[in-house]
Amino acid sequence: MSKNSLPKVVIVGRPNVGKSSLFNRILGSRKAIVESSCGTTRDRLYADIVWKDKRFTLVDTGGFEAQKGPGSDIHALVLNQLHAGIEEADIIFFVTDSSVGVLPQDMELASKLRKTSKRIYVIANKSDDGARTKAALDFFELGLGDPHPVSALNSIGIEKLLDDVIKYIDSPVVVQQLPRPIAVAIIGRPNVGKSSYLNSILREERVIVHPTAGTTRDSIDINFKYKGHEYLLIDTAGMRHNSKIEESADFFSNVRSKEAIKRADVAVIIVDGYDGLREDDMRIIDFCIKEGKSLLIAINKCDLINEAGMRQYTEMLVRKMNAVKNFPVMFISCKTKKNVTISLDTIFAVYERSRTVIQPAELTVMLESLRKAQEINRWSITVTYLKQAGSTPPAFILGTKSPRPLTEHIKRHMENLIKEMHDFKGVPIRINFESRSLPFGGRMSRGHKKGRR
Q1: Which one, 283, 366, 399, 436, has the greatest CB density within 10 A?
Q2: φ, ψ of residue 266 in degrees (nearest 5)
Q3: Which residues are CB-neighbours of 176 under 8 A, at least 6 positions away?
Q4: CA Rg value for the chain
């Protein structure tokens, strides 16, 4: 895995003190989900920051909670992610809430932080007025130095905080042209194994895995190198149909997941092997196709399935959704790591196909094949030209003459013919039909017989 060598500034604190608000304010965008309910952020979120010619990585973490009882296993997993964040930190932003003062959880976390050798900033957030700024002085009792009054909401004290931080960062901005990584969005319904798939690739518990649906809330970006190629792996929250969304955090998670698909080069949809292809899976696949995204369908929990079973399963998927036949289907097991790593080979192959630029000689051959196609001639259609208009996804302009407007059925048939002439497995293509209608009985191009009406 690619290791980021930039200094890390890690944001910690109990729930609902404004850690994600501070993260977003420094980042300048709403990358993390910010909501008034506790426990919205669970995994670590990373963002590279440039401030006055200095670079560092900012890390958001889940809220520190020491409570036990129902649901404490998820709290334990969040706590593990928090401890991992503290361990990798060079500088720690310990965020507190000046509107409520010092709480026992603040004292407990301060006790843990005092045992580290890291540089720690006590940040008294929500210091929007003079009274709260004065109240921020109460945080001296944490024993971690001078409190820094800020308001993430109103951007008060942020610049002063960052100016002080970069004094201890020796990482100037270096202008360097690096190859853009292949962005891979890991998508699917809740609890189908998306985070397990990511952890299996990375060979570490990088994101929280728990049987409770909806454990992942944010989209998590992680850089990874495999066979000399750089990847940006994006773990996403489970996507639900809007009618099934009950909490606002789930709504924003859905939005983040769709945004992740839009910025991805390839989407890997994880399908639960026991459940098969559900309606929500088909909606997600359809969304990817409409966005022009290359796609790999990974059937998870297939530890024992044999070759014959795989063929039957794939045939069942195609019967349920015909579009599946255009995309590669892999059978994986995140539990045993079966086919997980080698799925990256398929992802890379699909990515390369999405960048296809067809040479003029091959386009000429494809054009002649279209002109000779029986169905096209039977419909009295003359194909006049075929051009490639772009890639990622491959886009074409197809010129036709016909006695009547092209129907969607005819357009799909011509699209399928083009897909059969070139390997576009896993890649949606775009065709702009430039049609010119002919009067009934009108003359066709030389060399082509006039078809029946």
Answers
A1: 366
A2: -135, 140
A3: none
A4: 27
Is residue 355 over pLDDT 70? yes
Cα separation of 332 and 381, whole Å?
Answer: 45
- Inter-residue contact 151 to 43 (CB < 8 Å): no
* CA-closest candidate to residue 194, choices 173, 178, 170, 210: 210
* Amino acid at position 59, single letter: V
Angle at 219 between CA 216 and CA 222, to 5 degrees: 105
Distance (Å, rounded) from C-alpha 193 to C-alpha 238? 10
pLDDT tens column, 255-288: 888 888 999 999 999 999 888 899 999 999 999 9
8 A C-beta contact, residue 427 and residue 418? no
Give percent helix, percent strand, percent coil of the chain, each to the nearest 5.
35, 25, 40
- Entry pTM: 0.65
- Phi-psi bin for 179: left (phi > 0), alpha (psi -120 to 50), beta? beta
Cα 408 from Cα 31, distance rounded (Å): 39
What tens digit of pLDDT does each residue of 378-423 get? 989 999 999 999 999 999 999 999 988 899 999 999 999 999 999 9
CA-to-CA dists, residue 37 to 104, 313, 382, angstroms: 20, 42, 62
What is the DSSP secondary structure assignment for residue 116, as one 8-state letter? S
- Mean pLDDT lowest for which of 111-120, 198-207, 401-410? 198-207
